[in-house]
Amino acid sequence: MNSVIAGYIDERIKSGAIFGRPSWLELFVRRNGTDFAGVEAYEDMGEPKMCYQNATLLACLERADATYVEGFVVNPEIPMLIHHAWVEIDGQGFDPTIPDARNRLYYGVRFTTKTVRAQVKKNGVYGLLDTGWGLNMDLMESMDPGLREAGEQVDDEILKVRQAFMQLQAQHANGPDLSAL
Q: Which residues have CB under 8 Å from 103's CB, separation 6+?
């Protein structure tokens, strides 16, 4: 599916490579995630700004039928990717943190309860993909063994574009030729 939010993620991947920052988080989510249409606010809202905790507690302690999802949310009025977590219950996405979830776009990766429990215990924080001390590359590469190679391919493609841009910039370094005026 070629969704609006997938396009935002693709642009973030490209811009990260242009500026010399690998966009591993975005690349992992794009390669392994899916669009979540029609996400609704969960009936029992958790703490504001605590999405990883809210989704973890819901999936691991409160609802045996809930699947933890981590990825990105976008408010279409302010098209900026925000790293976020929510849950899926019976194929329906529910956000226990954002009250107006229905007005947002979601794209994320599903994680088993076993993985969520193990990662939270191992890292000592809620949230699986970014621990607060850096990206959880071990988890991402264990789930997507081709991630590193895919990131290098993106970097190679962007490097070519960057080099072409730098050549154009060098050709016009002295500004336009105004002598004919």
A: 75, 76
- pTM confidence score: 0.85
Provide the token pair at 27.
Answer: 């690349």
Tokens matching residue 112? 């088993």
**97 and 50 Cβ atoms separated by less than 8 Å:** yes
For residue range 6-49, list pLDDT tens digits in order: 999 999 998 887 776 779 999 999 999 999 989 999 999 999 99
Burial class (CB in 10 A: 0-12, 13-18, 19+), 14: middle
